[in-house]
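New to this. Please check this record:
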Amino acid sequence: MFLRGQIRASELGVLLIAALVGSASGLLTVAAREGAHTIQEALYGQDFDQHLSPSYVLPFAKIIVLPLGGLLLGLVTWLWVRRRPATIVDPVEANALHGGRMSGRDSLFLGLQSVLSNGFGASVGMEAAYAQLGAAFASKTGASLNLRRSDLRTLVGAGAGAGIAAAFGAPLTGAFYAFEIIIGSYTLANIAPVITAALAGVLVTRLLHVEPLVIKTVVTDSMGLSHYLAFGALGVLCAAFGVLAMRMVGWTERLVGMLPGPRFLRPALGGVVLAAIAWNAPQTLSAGHGALHVDLAEDLAIGAMLFLIVTKTIASVVSLGTGFRGGMFFASLYLGALLGRLYVVGLQAGGLALTIDPMAGALVGMGALAVAIIGGPLTMSFLVLETTGDFGLTAATLTASIIAGVIVRETFGYSFSTWRLHLRGETIRSAHDVGWLRSLTAGRMMRSDTSTIAASAPLEEFRRRFPLGSTRRVVALDPVGHYAGVVRVSAIWAEPDENKGVETLLVNQHDWLRPEMTIKEIMRVFDRTESDELAVLDDRGDVLGVLSEAYATRRYAEELEKARRDLVGGE
């Protein structure tokens, strides 16, 4: 408790913890990356400094490792799920629903799954693993210090952002990945620790002489109005493509789920499909880092770009839909670069007199499609800035990214991470902290000392037991003890007919609350019934308690004020 108090009272203490988290995230990122690359070296016979995806031809004996890798991954996952059947919580879900709390063991296993998937050549990126490992380390560190909820959420974002920053050698990209995607907000309270962690992660990779994933390039275009209009249209194209790609993953998962046979065979089946694709298009293998370097440097024909876009999309969708572990972060960058270059070349082939460098189109498309799929317009714009150092091109990327992001939110409503959660039944659409809303349930807020009476009781008995002013409402029960309705004490005492029974004055016979209802659901019921107090019932109709609208509103206001103080860094 003393250490927690010192950290909360001192910004320097928070920064030191953030630096530790960032350094550890950098080390974990390097370890995961080198682990996957070592497997690729052993299986595909690469040199240490080569990537898998630039390969133009691979013999059948090497491609066959894809289904074997899928089988190994399926068996390992099956054994793990037998011991720990709960779904692994990622940083977005942790910050949105669990106050930043994550499982260290589950996160390490997810990292292992990602290393195996990427190492065997599945078309998935490692960035999700980098973010997961960094965020999990931050979560366990913060939990060991017993940090408050808002501090822990910030630290989780800092750990995930540091992992991304270390991978790309881009601290601003990593920091804004944390702000936009993992934390869901950018405030004075979280800027210093997040940026400190991102810088620490990048510093670790530089000290270890690890090459970043970004491509250092120069674009000579000067941006005019026509360029921004053209790139705005590219943003629309990227939005449509991104939504299609995300839906294809869901369709593939449903289709694979309908297949007979053990679940652990599904990645092996995916490996067979991937091997067939890689036989003709080896550049679809792995995340695509090397392929991006090669394809941006070459003058590809329109047919070649279309072929690569189609095959890489199918390979990524099949990989994720059949159970390989990873994400679409780098796949979206690679596909966006191809789509942007194809867009510019297509405009020029169509006779439009736009003097746009195809490299500029590739970089803008890279950012716009990544925003459509992953989210974070500032994140991807800073990635372009740290790649090129060109502020004009960064502004064009931001323009296309904002258009793509707005269209995806309005027409689809999810990023790839939240779409996967939606397929599992969750309703969150970002990392904004809504977990506290779910804790405000009727079961937790209700008053259990409920006054009850039989619905068949005469008015005389009611008046004897509940004098005027003793309480406002009493719950009436049917002959078997289940809920029958609510009766107002004032209505009983105002009734002139002594021969009536309690059941004649019941209200809300068909309106009640369930204990699992959240505050939003509760307030909707209060609004619909125009009642200021409702009973809380279990599935059998037994009365658990009573909840008043006034108390529910007050608790909601208290939690809102607490969230506001956390947002601005107040106590």
